[in-house]
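Subject: Predicted fold for Betaine-aldehyde dehydrogenase, 486 residues

User T.R. writes:
Posting the sequence so we have a shared reference for the thread.
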Amino acid sequence: MTTRTDVYIGGTWTPSTSEREIVVRSPATGEPVGRVPDAGAADVDAAVAAARRAFDTGPWPAMAPAERAEVMQALLTELSARSDEMARTIMAENGTPAMLIGPGQVDNALDVLRYYAEVAASLETETPRAGRYSPALVRTDPVGVVAAVVPWNVPFFLTMMKVAPAMAAGCTLVLKAAPETPLNAYLLAEAAHAAGVPAGVLNVLAAGPESSERLVTHADVDKVAFTGSTAVGKRIAGLAAAQLKRVTLELGGKSAAIVLADADLTTTMPRLVGVTMSLSGQFCIAQSRVLVPRDRYDEAVELFAAAVEKLPVGDPADPATFIGPVISERQRDRILGYIEIGRAEGAVVVTGGGVPEGLDRGWYVAPTVFRDVTPGMRIAQEEIFGPVVALLPYDDEDDAVAIANDSDFGLHGTVWTPDVAHGVEIARRVRTGTYSVNGLSLDPAAPFGGVKQSGLGRELGPEGLAAYQESRTITVPVGTALPGLA
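User M.O. replies:
I've generated the structure tokens; pasting them so everyone works from the same file.
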């Protein structure tokens, strides 16, 4: 049990002014594993004020990018030393199985911080241009104070996708952790303090919807970076638009994996288990729709279901477990509700379809595979965010692309084929922000984000850094010599 009564504001651990608390419960048992303050209005205001002071009068934005890189490297060192503790904490908070916790929850987050520390070390913030009428100096300045709002499913990784580029750019932040998973954010704050991150650059608290809305609408917040549901993203977009506040929104998905006719089903279908069922299907780029050629549909369903049936389900601390619990009782019931919707629509459960036998304690859903799914069914259109996969047949490649694009979402997708060049051709036709051939990958050096209802803006890569910068032009008289300009 971890109990905290404070929040991290302005470089110090400050007693929360809120009388409310957040009880963090283990999804595997339902028992409490932590308690932290449910930050109130005064906490939010103090955190924003600290970030504002640090940006307006503190050293961080005025530092050379290479100096910021040194601090970020120190933070990386501190977090790396705490990686085992971070892994245990996240496992306790959201039930990620031990076999997935390192690469899926910790290592990738550290890689993002490492990437942006390296980018900051060589970052140029001024570029001369000859111009058509007079020379100009184009600057990239930090956007200002950032409200970073993160979800519970991959909390440390998604936090770093915001914190690392914002710090590299010279921004200051208020990190608002999800109520389900605040403990890892407290560990991040401890590491930042130990690493010597200047006071007010990173402020950390956890809160529910009311204080979260106060944060994103605060007049002294210049940008909101949010990952979460499309419904909440739309709410934030509307609130931000009223203030002309910058936003990055990484929202929901209903990604399609297209298995081409030349794919070897005996090897491909088992490989799809990882990109559909990891983290109990609770990740936004889960390939929750699998499209296979109609003339091989029965074979594909049989092979995929057989692979899913072999997945060990149970205690996330057990090294053999692949499917752990879902985050909460509410989420479990929501997923089970979608399974019943699928049945009512005429889809057939091949395996799973309920609570696993012997796992009444905690919040578990058996990995579930549906067949006889048509594109218009709700289970083929709506994000379930659980271990539920729909297999759909297609007639030809044009039909497969049309089904993949028949979605309000456009976050990710995959294609499976031995002909990688042809897979890239298919990728170009599917309307998503990110796409993978024969696997599932997010690279720190390449942009990630969605189209349609899957969001606005990009994270990761140079584009992810640019999201925390503003371009500014300074013109000078004709004939003025600028460095680097002949």
